[in-house]
Amino acid sequence: MFSKSKRFGLAAAAIVVLGLAACELTLSLAFAPTVKITSPASYSSVSSSPFTLAGTVSDNGKAVDNVSYKIGSSGTYTVISGTENLATAKDKAWSVQVDISSVPANSYFTVYVKGTSGDLVSTISRTFWKGSAFDETEPNDTYLTADALTVNAVAFSAQIQPSGDEDWYVVTLASSTAYTIKTLSASSGSDADTKIFLYQGTDLVNHVAFNDDFSGTFSQIGYTVPPAAGGTYYIKVIGFNTILEGTYAIQITQP
Ligand SMILES: [Ca+2]
Ligand SMILES: [Ca+2]
Ligand SMILES: [Ca+2]
């Protein structure tokens, strides 16, 4: 018979051995490489071809055979130079010049990036806009990050992208003055079906004006600021529904 302390010692030793075994088991498991795209940001406007796509790759217990990329879901993967046969990789940077001359202007395109370790594969994708940049600065999804608009300025271009996108604008309006706020075609891409909400200051629960369709599916609000109600106003533009995407421009005029 073992004494109490000896039995405890054996039990503790067994736990240590089990622990080491579990540890070894974890370490011996291999997973597909972790691939990331670091730039450009999602939905960036890309106007020149080729453009630089950059990212990183990390091995997950198994050497990385390569990182490859393709344009569009039906494209063919091309191996990115410098990513082949990496015995160990920890956030190893890669970059590649992506030719988008075959992508139509003023349209979205998606780049897929794949990390391969034998039969272990991981894929990520990111969507970009081929065309000139929009005036809006994303993220502008709350009043805190609203884009500033100026009365009687040229139309300000933007897009509802991805679906469910909210675009917030801030503008200073004068008391007892009539304004027209409208969305119109951005002359690039597909027109969005917009809705406009106007809020006085940061009372974002009660809009003071709203419109969905005025000219086709574009929106227009005619609003006269009440006496002593001049100041900061916020405008929210969203798509007609949460699956809609598209481009538009917004303009505020004082007749
Ligand atoms: Ca937007
Ligand atoms: Ca937005
Ligand atoms: Ca509409």
Summarize the structure.
By secondary structure, the protein is mainly beta. The chain has one helix at about 5-30; strands at about 30-40, 45, 50-60, 65-70, 80, 90-100, 105-115, 120-130, 145-150, 155-160, 165-175, 180-185, 195-200, 210, 220-225, 230-240, 245-255.
Characterization of this structure:
The chain is mainly beta. The chain folds into two domains: 31-130, Immunoglobulin-like (Sandwich), CATH 2.60.40.10; 143-253, Jelly Rolls (Sandwich), CATH 2.60.120.380. It contains one helix and 17 strands. It has one helix spanning 4-28, and strands at residues 31-39, 45-46, 51-60, 66-71, 78-79, 92-98, 107-117, 120-130, 147-148, 156-160, 166-173, 178-184, 194-200, 209-211, 220-224, 231-239, 246-253. The strands form four sheets. Strands 2-8-7-4-5 form a five-stranded mixed beta sheet, with no helix packed on it. A five-stranded mixed beta sheet has the order 9-11-16-13-14, with no helix packed on it. The longest helix is centred in the first third of the chain and has 25 residues, at 4-28. It is elongated. 30% of the residues are buried. The model is unreliable at 1-6 and 8-26 (pLDDT under 50).
